[in-house]
Amino acid sequence: MMGRGLFWRVYAASYDALWDTELTAIVARRVLEEAPGDLPVVEVGAGTGLITRELAAARRVIQACEPNAHMRAHLLAKGLKVDRVTSESIEDLRLPPGDYCVIAVNVLHLVADAPGCLERLLAITGPGGRVIAVVPTPQASVRSVARAQRVAGASTTRCLRFRAAHLLLGPLGMLAGLRPRCEALTPESLVDVVGGVQEIHLLGGVARVAAPARERGRKRPPL
After folding, report:
1. What's the CA gap between 106 and 104, in Å, rounded?
2. I need a labelling partner for 54 at 20 to 30 A (CA). Which of 28, 32, 95, 215 fits?
3. Residue 145 lies in a domain
4. pTM for the full model?
5. What is d(CA 82, CA 40) in angstroms, rounded to the nearest whole number?
6. What phi and psi, each to the nearest 5 degrees, are found at residue 37?
7. Sign of CA dihedral 195, 140, 142, 55
8. Is 110 in a helix, a strand, or coil?
9. In-domain check, residue 56
10. pLDDT at 186
């Protein structure tokens, strides 16, 4: 079985080349529209910092959390204006009492217990806080994401490279034990869909999580 460390080292090294696109920037800007200006921002699953970069340019980001060492190294190398970068996972995250805007972009479909992680995020935001979660749409696939990137302005060559890379990375991720799950949040929390492939959810207080969809033909989201 391929080691998880090797997979994430390869994926972290190629992540920006695959995902640093206008589509990602559009998602980040849309997230910012939902982030109250008076709340300190905490980002979980910050990855290599593509979303963090946009957030830090417009808001005070007091903490960016990324538990994977390979991803976190690329995040730190960007030298972004963030109060602190930590290795905390959602389960480990601890914040002083207060209200926060907690942002999780393309994280919940990669955790084993999405409902439990969502409850954890809601518990630490504070009574006046907010959780903004971005997840793949149920129909998202490598092909549809590449198409959305092309519509957003990426070159044809780059989109073809994206598809080719994921044809390799997808099976390698599965060999490493990664099983992306598309557990949809309830429609009540949905505020927007970007490019037909990214759902933006806004939550506060008690959130309800829908049961995973089981319909035939459901696509596996790209990593």
Report:
1. 6
2. 95
3. no
4. 0.88
5. 11
6. -65, -20
7. positive
8. helix
9. yes
10. 81
Q: Which residue has the tokens 């207080």?
A: 205
Total number of domains in the chain: 1
How many Cα atoms within 13 Å fall on the side-chain side of residue 104?
Answer: 26
* DSSP bridge partners of 202: 132
Summarised one tens digit per residue, pLDDT across range 98-127 is: 999 999 999 998 888 888 999 999 999 999
Could you read off the pLDDT of 67-102 as tens digits, one per residue? 999 999 999 999 999 999 999 999 999 999 999 999
Report how far apart the first and last C-alpha atoms of the chain are (Å, whole number). Answer: 19
DSSP 8-state code for residue 188:
G
153 is a domain residue = no
pLDDT at residue number 43: 98
Task: Tell me the mean pLDDT in the region 45-58.
Answer: 96
Q: Under a CB-based contact definition with an 8 Å cutoff, are residues 123 and 42 in contact? A: no
Q: What is the CATH number of the domain that holds 181?
A: 3.40.50.150
Contact 41, 61 (CB under 8 A): yes
> Treating both helix axes as pointing N-terminal to C-terminal, what angle do 4-19 and 50-58 enclose, rounded to 10 degrees?
50
Cα 84 to Cα 131: distance, rounded to the nearest angstrom: 19
Antiparallel, parallel or unpaired: β 61-65 and 41-44: parallel
Nearest to 36 by CA among 23, 50, 55, 64: 55
DSSP letter at 138 equals T
